[in-house]
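Feature request, filed as a ticket because there's no other form

It would be nice if the structure record came with a short human-readable summary line next to the tokens. Right now we just get the raw output. Example of a typical job, pasted below so the devs can see what we mean:
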Amino acid sequence: TTAVIRYLNHPLREDQSVKYIRPGLEVLEEVQRTGDIFFPKNWAAALLGNHLSSSAYEEVVRFLNERPDYSPLLKNKILQAAYPLYRANN
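Raw output as currently delivered:
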């Protein structure tokens, strides 16, 4: 599954794949409930690891800002996966 997400979010498809960020982040809690202990980290890394655009950055920031009570564990997974994205946009 993460391989497919990684291919969908390949750097050559970045402009087209920003639309997958929000839905991918929205299911992260379910991924945690139904997957193994490492799956949320791998999911977030596959979803965000190849993005550097400002529109991708805005999607992640908007998602986290809309959820102030989001699971700290999952929020940290997102922030770790999005670190290159944050660096490219700050």
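Something like this underneath would help us a lot:
Residues 34 and 40 are 10 Å apart (CA to CA).
The longest helix spans residues 54-65.
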